[in-house]
Amino acid sequence: MMIRKLMLAAAVVTLAACSTTSPDVVKRGDAQRLSQVQDATVLSVRAVTVEGSQSGAGAVTGGVVGAIAGSSVGGKREGQIVGVLGAVAGAALGNAIERNVTKEDAVEVLVQLRNGERRAIVQAKGNETLNPGDAVILVSTGGKTRVTRAPYGSAPSAPAEKN
């Protein structure tokens, strides 16, 4: 019963360390911040995978769970040896679980800005499906950029010339 509780705690800690590159998720620190917006057109979209992170939380949690589980085996001396082996195995397993849980299916979107420059942005698959030719906006906040479909009728006109 104790081991099940520890395994649940390990899963919760590992999942808490997850982060996403989804265009549909905005970090708390980015809320209510002014963002730069650029108009663009999608040139291509291709599926990619964002590799999982290794913050160390999975390894630490797995190591603790493995050590506790292993130390309950046999007598005092055997429990210590198996506890160390359990910690090593748990750390390796926890690290692998963290990498796998934080891996994301994503897309690389190649866009062309109005001035002719091209940009490529990788982001997790969001709720929108982007296709070549779609009008999009690039929203940049705090060094991060996300691509989303441009609101209809939102394309700004060229600035009026002053006489």
TrEMBL record:
Record-level GO cellular component terms: outer membrane
Record-linked InterPro entries: Gly_zipper_2TM_dom
Lineage, uppermost ranks: Bacteria, Pseudomonadati, Pseudomonadota, Betaproteobacteria, Burkholderiales
PROSITE patterns: PROKAR_LIPOPROTEIN
Taxonomic superkingdom: Bacteria
Protein name per the record: Outer membrane lipoprotein SlyB
Keyword set, alphabetical order: Lipoprotein, Signal
Signal peptide (UniProt feature, chain positions): 1-16
This protein's record includes keyword Chaperone: no
Organism (species): Roseateles asaccharophilus
Glycine zipper 2TM domain residues: 57-98
